[in-house]
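Anyone able to model this chain together with zinc ion?
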Amino acid sequence: MLVSVSKGKTWIITSPYIYDNYGIFVGFTNRLGGVSNGKFESLNLSYRVGDLPENVTRNRMILSSDIGVYPDRWVVPEQIHGFRVSAVSYSAAGKGGMNDKSAIPGSDGLITNCNKLPLFVLVADCVPVLLFDLYTRTIAAVHAGWRGVLRGIAVEAVRRMKENYGCTPSNILAFLGPHIKSCCLQLEHEIARNFENEIDRSVIEDTKENSCFVSLEKALVIQLELQGVKRDNIYSSGICTCCNNEYFSYRRDGGITGRQAGIIFSI
Ligand SMILES: [Zn+2]
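re: yes, here you go
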């Protein structure tokens, strides 16, 4: 369902099937094809990580010309590792697109049923989760780090899709983008215990003396299935950002690095 394609200068993991059959673009960028240098080489899409703002703007324009939606339409949440999912409409077009200050405050997820209103989340190890309801054409983009997964940010997104737009979970498709997988996500025992208590023992894949290896993907699948999303409707890129140098990785790069994007919009 998810394949890597070159859209021009950039490489994007996307679903041509979903685009052709439902008119929905889902995409996950990597770090290739931009103009940023050093730790941000090269397609850094975040204004908040210390990169030159003019380079971020150029990168956003490069991506825009490849995917056909420009930053004056993008909607980007502030992302605070929280729990809030904001419903947005056309009045939000461009918020967070051309600068960081106008991003949707206090939110880690966005939902809408508006056409041509592209929702973005920016990540480097956290899971970009994209959701799409086949019948109401409601879409969502969610930033899910380990804190957000524990707090149930994806559950909250599905709940808001039901409440605000009348979505039925069995009609929702979910796409989990490149993120730090259990091969590399080492968390302290105490945090891992929270995963065991709040979600399931099975999300802890290995245990060492001082830490545990945790699968955010398994945790999200369990959470989404409990909400009524079908297992067969959940798709993953299968890529670990920490293992793959084509992606920014907060953990591998020692905390100073760029951000790639998860993108969804109805055409
Ligand atoms: Zn890995």
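The radius of gyration is 17 Å.
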